[in-house]
Design a protein that fits this description.
Layout lengths: L2 H8 L1 H15 L7 H13 L4 H18 L4 H16 L12 E6 L6 H14 L4 E6 L4 H14 L2 E3 L7 H14 L4 E6 L6 H18 L5 E8 L4 H13 L4 E5 L9 H9 L3 E5 L7 E3 L2 H9 L2
Helix pairs in contact: 2-3, 2-5, 3-4, 4-5, 5-12, 6-7, 8-9, 10-11
The structure holds guanosine-5'-diphosphate and magnesium ion.
Length: 302
């Protein structure tokens, strides 16, 4: 299955709901009336786009519709896709050029960090990169075991310590192993106990200092994993994490499990953090680099 096909399949629920809403709003109407705009805005808000972002989108849609004299449902869809693609693009590039480069994945429990790391490892390995994983979520033994399973699946190496070990020490050892073995890319898992904010902040701070010291000139991404099915909660988590860590991008997981894929728009527009990867299923190749145009098309059926 190709990337695009997986994306289209993964966003089916959202498309049925959001693209379907455009069809419904336009049914039997020859003009883009106020009522049509209102139902489109409502559909965006229902899809977790967020009030302010939805208003902005509708505003831009109005301008476009006026200029291009749009009257049909397909015309509205096309215009909507263009507006949304515009809003979503910018900053999604991931440059992992230095040898090694490093990705830290952060986020609360259950959002899909470990799973996404397994998928990322497979993705970069397929590009010919030598990848090494660091099991720096040392809070539970199960977390370490889970990453080991993913490492095996992806066919990459892993560095781990025992449960309860210092996460920064795991990151340190992973970096040393990565350097010694000529790895192209180091990806580290972390624990995400946001309810113990001070602790988490200290833990992440220590990890950053290790990376700064050991890999000062390396390309670095700090990717915050968010669960798309949690809607506004995901947005709130991003706000919290933005305060305690320098987040360079977002991995938005479980888009296949929600009809509210509009949350991507909310995140990009409200938080000004680019979505860099999206998870559209549980299989190893169900993580993809984010492409604004393709995403917009898959979301509205453009
Ligand atoms: P962590 O606690 O943040 O490391 O989260 P995990 O990686 O353990 O994932 C939690 C659950 O979410 C697991 O059951 C994963 O299979 C599931 N999951 C992760 N990403 C996706 C996704 O893109 N789609 C679906 N449907 N499930 C996902
Ligand atoms: Mg985990």
């Amino acid at each position: 299955m190709g990337l695009l096909h997986r994306l289209t399949k993964g966003l089916k629920k959202s498309r049925d709901s959001m693209g379907g809403a455009i069809d419904a709003a336009m049914e039997g109407s020859e003009e883009l009336t106020e009522e049509v705009y209102e139902s489109l805005e409502e559909a965006l808000i229902m899809g977790d786009t967020g009030m302010q972002t939805a208003e902005e989108i509708i505003g831009q849609l109005r301008e476009r519709a006026k200029k291009q004299k749009i009257k049909s449902a397909s015309g509205v869809k096309e215009a909507m896709c263009a507006v949304v693609a515009d809003l979503l693009s910018g900053g999604e590039e991931v440059d992992m050029i230095t040898m090694p480069a490093i990705i830290l994945v952060i986020g609360v429990n259950g959002v899909g960090k470990t799973t996404s790391i397994g998928k990322l490892a497979a993705l970069y390995k397929a590009e010919g990169k030598k990848v090494i994983l660091g099991a720096a979520d040392t809070f539970r033994a199960a977390a370490i075991e889970q990453l080991e399973i993913w490492a095996e699946r992806a066919g990459v190496e892993i560095v781990k310590h025992k449960e309860g070990a210092d996460p920064a020490a795991v990151v340190f050892d992973t970096i040393q192993a990565g350097k010694a073995r000529g790895a192209d890319l180091i990806i580290c898992d972390t624990a995400g106990r946001l309810h113990n904010k001070k602790n988490l902040m200290e833990e992440l701070g220590k990890i950053y200092r290790i990376v700064d010291r050991e890999l000062p000139y390396s390309d670095r991404e700090v990717l915050l994993a968010l669960d798309a099915t949690t809607g506004q909660n995901a947005v709130n988590q991003a706000k919290e994490f933005k305060q305690i860590a320098e987040v360079t991008g977002i991995i938005l997981t479980k888009l296949d499990g929600t009809a509210k894929g509009g949350v991507v728009l909310n995140i990009k527009n409200e938080l000004q953090i680019p979505v860099k990867f999206i998870g559209v299923g549980e299989q190893i190749d169900d993580l993809q680099p984010f492409n604004a145009r393709e995403f917009a098309d898959a979301l509205f059926g453009g």
